[in-house]
Structure formats: structure tokens, C-alpha cells
Records
---
Amino acid sequence: MKVSIIIVNHNGSMHLPELFKSFKALEYPEEQFEVIFFDNGSVDNSLEVVRREYSRARIISNPDNLGFAAPHRIAAAKARGEILAFLNNDMRVDPRWITEGISYLNPEQKIVCSSSKIFTWDGKNIDFGGGSLQYLGYAEQYQKDEIKDGAPVLFPCGGAMFISRKVFLEADCFDDDYFAVFEDVDLGWRLWMMGYKVVMASRSIVYHKGHATLDSRGEVRKRYLMHKNALVTIIKNYQEDNLKKILPSAMSLALKRALLFLGVDKRMFYFWEKDRGRLTLNKNSIEGLIHLVVLDDVFENFENIREKRDRVQAKRVRKDEEILSMFKDPLRNIMGFKEYFWHEASLIGYFQLYELFNCTEQYRNNLNHGLGIARHDLNRIRREINRNTLTIPCINKPSGRFRDLIDKFNHRRKSEGILNAFRYSLFFYIEKVRRKN
């Protein structure tokens, strides 16, 4: 089969000589593959290096940086190959990269896309060996052999993958609005929805320096893309009944992350609370602002996202029930804040998302872990109360007060369950200690 290798570049001239050198060692017939080099407005000598190192390459020079997603659509429309091979500019390929990668494709079995295994540059560690998806749209790369060779995966890695050109165009390519980050997750999910399959091609090997272009743009901008694209992905791809459960949770949790990172003490806004001084933001405030900007941008662009969702859903062949098991780790916790954990646990319980993803046991384990933290906090508070009793003469013995805690805990446990009982008791005594101080 004729293969079109598409490379998107932005100021990556330092990576290109090693990439093109590896092309010259490919075991695939040279007349059966072409290289399309899409340059995103580079101001270094990238084009000069391409012409010197690999004169066979077809160059598309764009004056502006369009990101990662749109250039693949533009290049795919000009490609001559039946198969498209996407490759990051900071990689080198194994001689059998193409041969092994396309050997997994089988249109009769609907296998139209395969993902290469990606090693670190020194070959000692795995950079991508498959991946999982958290229910809010956050993907995680497996950095060990968790997926068997030829086994199905929800999504490929856009940095090294093969896909039928016809199907890529039929699926409307990567979403231009993603710019970069999770565009491959969105594509993989849509392919499965359309009735196609994606597999892991573990014998198709590349070596990666690691996010060289994205890293040059700064961590804050990368995290903005990650959070925005995760939210857009779930809006586009869940079927209607499931989106009605998950979108409210996603919005609520995004606001919770913003407030926690900003370090906002909400009680200072309440009339019934004592004066707590001036509002001050903590050192993580920029992270909190990212979540607010994401929400604002998604709301501003919601009509466009809804129209895209309509087009995606119109191509649905498979229901969510046939796809969600491929998420692998849907209830993975993405935050370390205890307040976030309890808020998310309550939403997962309210919407019964553990049943949707068939993760009842994992949800129970998460709750048990959270209850262990709550018990630890209650014991710490109890020790603090006892210490204050011994060191401050004016405080009465705590026995009556602690009995009140036990009574309140038992009452709540009978009426609302052990989880809410622990939460109520914990917050009750934290507030008592704070007021005393």
C-alpha cells in the first residue's frame, strides 16, 4: 500500500536530521511512501534542513502556527497514499516501523487505525504503550506493556500512528479547534463510535525525545489545552443520556478545582461568618484561573461545540455501552485535595456513574480509602482537643463534647449512611476548633 508520512513542524530544525536519517533505513520500498512536511510558520532554518537532508519531501509552508490538528487535515487532503502515517518531528523510526504498523490494518474487520509503540529516545523506557481515559476526558499514557500486541485500544497516539486516509477524511479528521493535546483521544473515540476499530501495533516502534514543540510553548498553555480539550471531548462524544449525567459533574468539578487552586475561603463571603480579613490568593492561583478561563471559553463557543456534537452523533453506530469498557480506568482520581475527593465521590454516587462504567468495586475501594483519611483526621482532631484540655485550664473536660460528636455521628450514620456521617462529623469538629482558635 502507498503510505503518506505527515510531519508537522514548528521551529524543530534541531530534531530533523536524525528523523530523516532513520527514514533512509526504512525497509519499506521507497517508491511506496511519500513524506509531507507541514511547516507551521517556523522562524528557524527548518525548511533549509528539510531540503538538505531529505529532498524527496513535499513541503507545505504555512505562515502561521496552526497547531497540530489542522495541518493533518490539510496534508491529508493533498496526500497520495491510501494510508496516512502521522509522526512527530522529534522522533526516529525503527526500520520496520511502516511494515509492522500497516500489517495490523484490515478493512474487512473494520480495523482502520493502529498506534505504534513509542520508546524514550534512549530506548530504555516506554513512552506510549496504550492508554486509559478518565470519565471527564483526561487521558493517561501507559508507560509499560499493558496492552497486548494487536489488542484494541480506545485511541492511538497521534505522534506515531497509521490510519486509512479515506476513514480519516470520513471522520472529519482531527478537530481543528483542539490545536493540540487530546485530539487523538477525540479521534479514537469517534472512530469506535462510527463502528471502526483501533489497535495497538507493538512491533511498530519509534523513539521519542518527548513533547519538544509543546514544551517550548510553556506549561500554562499546555494545561489550558488539556483541560479545555478534555471538556470538549466529553461534550461531543457521550450519548445524550450519559452526557446529562456527566456534564453537570464536569462543570461542578471544574469550579471546585478552580476554587481549591485559588485557595479561596468561601466563608469570607458569608454574612453569618466572622470577619476573616482580606481575600488573598495562593501561589497556585494561576492553575485555578485556567479552569475558569476554560469554562468561559467553552460557554462562549458552546453553539459551535453543539453543532460538532450533532455531526459526531449522526455518525454513531456503536452505543456507549460498547465503548466505555475501553476507558480502562474511568474513575481515576485526578486531584489530591480531600475536599475535591469527597465532592467528586458524592457526584459519582448521585449519578450512579460507577454503574455506568461497571466500576462498583473500584468506587467502594475509593470510598474506603477516603474513609481512612477521614478517620485519620478525626483522630488528629481528637488528640488536638485532648492536648488543649491539658494545657489550657479554662477549657472544660472534653468528655461531654466528645460524647456529642459520637451521638451526632451515630445519628447521621443511621439516617444518611457512614460516609455522610464521617463527613459531617469531620466538618463539625474542624469548625469547632477553628472558632475556638
---
Amino acid sequence: MQWSFTTATDLTAALRAGAVSSVELTDEAIARIERDDTVINAICVRDFDRARAAARGADQARARGEDRPLLGVPITVKESYDIAGLPTTWGMPAHRDHVPVRDAVQVSRVRAAGAVVLGKTNVPLGLQDLQSFNEIYGTTHNPWDHSRTPGGSSGGSAAALAAGFGALSLGSDLAGSLRTPAHFCGVHAHKPTLGLAANRGMNPPATPALPVDLDLAVVGPMARSARDLTLLLDVMAGPDPLTRGVAYALTLPPARHQRLREFRVLVLDEHPLLATGSAVRAGVHRVADALVEGGARVERRSPLLPDLTQAARLYTRLLFSGATARFPVESYEQLRIRAAGLGAHEKGLDAARLRAMVLSHRDWIEANDQRELHRHGWRALFAEFDAVVCPITPTPAFPHDHNPDLFARRIDIDGVEYPFFDQLVWAGLATMPGLPATAIPAGRTGAGLPVGVQLIGPMFEDRTPLRLAELLEQRIGGFQVPLTLRTAVSQGRTGRSGAPGAPPA
């Protein structure tokens, strides 16, 4: 039997039952990477010798009667996480020789849980793109269509999961960097509540690995099933021991409901600033129909929903002010001059991005105060609803676009062009207030590309959207093996998850 596409939950059960060894799983994963990653290019840093040693150690530990949450399960890690002895570059050529001597706190946690780390997955330059390519490691291709991006910045992780390169992956999210790749590659991801999972060691190579309270960014799990997200989040969750003490533990409340018919869900498929592509809209409708058929209470609008236009503009101010805060003085001055030349009538998101890049601290404080008002609005909404279903981006995976001027790029939405960064408005809906959001597969387009949606939940109630994701997976299906890999499936060379031949949504 082959195991490459089996869920981590099922792998753990098989390991406990003695149906397979960690060495066998690891050797199979390595063989698949060596065979298929030449084209996909998801694994940018291989660590096979240490992985095999870790697998042997996992099998020995199990033989001694040990049992840990991820004992013997092969996984991958986003390149931006520090792993002792491996390069952490964030795709930046100036740091191609940066090799940390300590693991990131999350790498330490998955190792302590028994995971076998196969290597690191590719990212865009500085993690600042919705694609995954850089001068050091090249371009990662979407396993469903090699002419298209797997997304970014956790695109290498999503592509690795879709291709069967390990059962889980560690990613991160600031502008949809977990959710967009999951949507583009047909896998699952969870953006945790802001501050839920410690981030030390997931920092640019030029900065010290210190415990920092980030403004928008989070680290989180990626997987091929919803239940696996919970499995990995339970390992990742909790504060940094350097700031709260090793004995301190954060306990998340249970999901609000266990049955689909108990959920109250608000479904959104339109944004006032951006069109929603027909393929993504169909995915949202498919999820909405499944909710209705399962007996959930579904609404399409609510006066409690915070203003989407205000939310998008506020997210833009917070995101881009942080992204440019460490720009060289010369670059900052050029941006300041350009921003000063904007007319009062220029109210679009392009203008908002430029103004945000030179935001003063006084203006940032004002923006942060506005964010608190939005958070309060979300609290009121989640008193009446348990989750919000909405797009992640307005389109499925788009063709590779390596134009170095990101502001000159365009995104095609059903034949109409929009500024490239406008597609961030849906991801920002959860990011700006720090809410948890679970990305799930929602079918495929007529051309066979995956489509996903996100389930946004109440702050620090991550288990609620995660449980809803499990219930929806049972009703509409989840991950499927990419069409480009179906030949291997039909010949019996892959694992159990991802039913070959399933029709597109």
C-alpha cells in the first residue's frame, strides 16, 4: 500500500496500529519528491538524511511504548522558519548563506510532537507576493496546472501538500499567505487568531529571533484535511515560553456546535470594491447550498456586518504601512513625494496603498483605534452568527506573472482587469481584526482548477470554523489528487485520500 496522499490523522492511526513504519512513510515521501518535484519545485531545501534519522528514532520511540501527536509523520516547513543547520533566506539573495543555529519555536514544537521534517518549502522574495518564486530557488508551479502559480507566500507548502510531499506543513499568513495557496492548490489551511501561536524564529534573516507581538501576521497549519488542521494547531497553539513561562498553556474553547444544523452562518459573495469571479462565486454557492441542505441557518446579509469598504481601506493602511516601515530612507522619500502629489479626489485602493506607505505614527494610532471599533462590530456579529463564509481571492490560480513592479501587475476577473493588490480585500477581512479563518476546498472550475472559500470565526474560537470545515468536508468532499498526478493514482502508486475521477464542481 502507498501512503503519499493519506491524511496525517490516518497516518497516525496506521503508525499506532503497526500497519506502517515512519521509515517506510519517510522513504516513500522522499521518493515522491525526487520523482515529481523536478517539475513542481516545491521543496527548495531538502533535509533527507536527518529526516531518515528522525524516522528511525520515531520507530524506536514507538517500540518503547511512546505515543506523541505527530510521532513518525513526515511534514514540511515553510522556508521562512528557522531550522538549525539549514538556510533561511526568505528568497533574498543577500541572505543566501544565512544558516540559523536554532530552530524556530514552532519547528521545536513539531519535532517534540514527533514529526519528521523532510525539508523547507519555497517562498516569494521577502514573502511579499501572491506567488512563490525567487532568484535563489526559482519558481514553484501549481500541481494542477504548471503554467499557474500555487499562490504565496506559503505557495511551496500548498504545492507540496497537493503533490503528496508530506502530510502537513507549517506556513504563515499576513495577506492571505496561508489561505490563498490553499485555495489555489485545493488543500486546507487555517489562519489562527492573532497571537494564538508563537512566531519566534519566523522572522527575516537580518533580524534577531525574538518573541514579538506582530500587528497582523500569524503562523499556522496547512494540511489535506480539516481534521489535520486541528491536529497540527493543537501542537502549534500557545504563547512563547520566553514570555509566558513554560508551564503556561492557552486553552481554546470548544467549537460552538458539533452538528451542521446547529450553525448560524452569514454567506458573502460580493465586495463593494472588487468583482467576484464566476468560478469563485460558484464555490461560495456550493458551500452555501451544502449548509442549507444540512439544516444550518444561512443568511446572505446582516446589518451587523462591519462595513466592507471601510474594512478594506483600513486593512490597506495597516498592511502597507508595516510593509514599508524598514524601507531605505531614499525609497521612503520617493514614496512620500508621490503620496503628496495625490489629489484629494483620488480615493481608490491604489491611492490608499501609496498613502499607507508613508503613514505617520499619529495616523497609525488613529487607524488602530478604528480597528478596535471594527473588532467590536465583529463581536456583535458573532453574537448572532457562528461563522462567515466568503471568498479568499476573486479568482482561481492565475498564470505566473513575474513583473518586478507589483503595482503594474493586473488581475483578470472574468475579462476585466483590476490592480493586482486589489485581490487582497477578502483575505484582509479576517486579517485586519485578527480573526481566525479556515480555508477549505469548494470544488473545481470547468477547466479543472481548485476553488476554495474561507470560514471566518470569532476571535480565539478557532475550533468553531475548524469544526464547520470538518462538517463541510464530509458533505461536499475535500482534497482531491491533482489531475496531473492521476495517472499514478490509477496505477495504484499513491495513497488513499483524494478520490480519482471525481467530477469537477
